[in-house]
Amino acid sequence: MAVATTTPTENKPRRLLLVSVPRTASNLLVKVLNIQRQPNALSNGKGGYFFHHAFMVATREALFKKPIEEWSDREKTEIRDAYQLCLDQLEERCAQAQRDNKIMFTKEHGFWFINPATMYSQRLGPERLEPVKVEGDLAEFFRLRLPDAVGPERTYSADNWTLFPDEYLRMWRLTFIIRHPALAWPSLYRALLKVAKLGAVDDDGLKGASAANMTLTWTRKLYDWSMTQQPDTPPLIIDANDVIHNPDSVLRFCEAAGLDKNFVQFEWGGENDKNPTDGWDNPGMPIDRQVAEIMLSTLEASKGLVKDKAPTKVDIKVEAEKWKDEFGDDVAGVIEKAVWDAMPDYEYLWARRVQT
């Protein structure tokens, strides 16, 4: 199923949000789109991430280990304040984009801005149940101060599980990148094992972070929300395989998102080219740079698209045998279950991706 990729110009938001999941080649897409050199776009030095800080606070406090009902008041307040700081920094950048008459570009992993009352109430691990949207006082605690431009109304429709009301989300054009779970999930686990060696997470935190990430639930929820709430600016989806093997899909995605296709690049590495980790130095949290170096290592070492990272055909059962050799039976079983659980959402989203 191909989706419409043209919308009335006057209705296009001047804010572009790329929703991703770790290891879906989202940083590669940002590199290919050449966001930093797009003449009509503004972002930041972290590949568009603004809510990474809140995620790292949750990681540092080991909050993945326990349900939110067991959090202390201090922990809940610290997380809420971290989210507020991220939003304030994002809105400062949005204001700059508006002054410069540019599109504001940001890229976030979907679960980073799910309301913590919902995100951290889920049962983690292989026995995880279907997620349930949490409402009431706990969800209300994490509501953030929003810019005046949002207006006084605050609506949270059924498919909106995020920190933000519908009125704020509608200020953004939503776009998505997906990747076959049998490629993304084991890649994520490899990366998290390296992060664990830095001391950023222990075994329980590794399991919690894996469970939080190895799902397309949040992506599907946001996509369905956008289809209902933004009929004049339908969401765009691109698959990682198309980013690598189908340049015409990238060009179409670029144009539909309001970016300049003349700046798209499929090779890089010139003397003026910045490393993807250049913007990740954080004196207050030096581990940020170390984690970024792990997550961006393949991209940073590349001079262009690496096609052997994206096989055109994937056999889950064959891949599962490889995971047993690499990770052991227990972890391989967890990954395989997460892959099969994610496949209905992946196939649903894949059928709606931008195609040529």
TrEMBL record:
Coiled-coil boundaries: 80-107
SUPFAM superfamilies with a match to the protein in the record: P-loop containing nucleoside triphosphate hydrolases (SSF52540)
InterPro entries: P-loop_NTPase (IPR027417), Pyrrolopyrazine_biosynth_F (IPR053226)
Gene3D superfamilies cross-referenced by the UniProt entry: P-loop containing nucleotide triphosphate hydrolases
UniProt KW keywords: Coiled coil
PANTHER family: SULFOTRANSFERASE DOMAIN-CONTAINING PROTEIN
Name the UniProt record assigns to this protein: Uncharacterized protein
Organism: Madurella mycetomatis
